[in-house]
Hints:
- The protein contains seven helices and eleven strands.
- By secondary structure, it is α/β, with parallel strands linked by helices.
- The strands form four sheets. A five-stranded parallel β-sheet has the order 4-3-5-6-9, with helices on both faces. The protein has a two-stranded parallel ribbon with strand order 1-2. Strands 7-8 form a two-stranded antiparallel sheet.
- It is globular, with a radius of gyration of 16 Å.
Amino acid sequence: MPWLTFTNGTTRTPEAYAQALRRIGFDLPDDAMLTPATNAVDHFVAMGHRSVLVLGGEGLKEPLRRAGIESVAPKGRPEADAVLVGWYREFTMDDLEAACHAVFDGANLYSSSQSVFFASAEGRALGTSRAICAMISSVTGVAEQVVGKPSPIGLGCAAKRLGAAPHELSVVGDDPELEMAMARHADALTIAVTT
Length: 195
């Protein structure tokens, strides 16, 4: 059966995540690795977004570049079709101001994840995309759309790549608020991992 791996991580490109999984024994081709960036690319192409203000690193920017979508720097009053927020610990007030101006001028706001915390080598780390989007939304009054888990956008991208409808998928995961919620919203089979 065809399958994909889906992470909410944005610090690496999808290919780098796939390579890390291959090193520990998973037979995973690059094109079977989904991230919020791969979902964003699919969604942005469908929406006609050609320029995106990116609050994040190369894990978000590189997939956009490969798809021919311009990555706009968060400086001044940038023109962009969308604002995409991911893991971005370097966030500044200048970034906030640039993103807000882009949204005020009509850019759509997208979040890689709305998770409060992520697991890290040092323990729980605050989910930066949620915190940053909360500031942008508070200032602009515009709510973010999520492109990572548990969004319908993310599951729709996975289904399209697998050549199936979302309700035909089986979703395996360990987070009731992410994978399980995503599957339940689409009436897909949910398989919870509790170890």
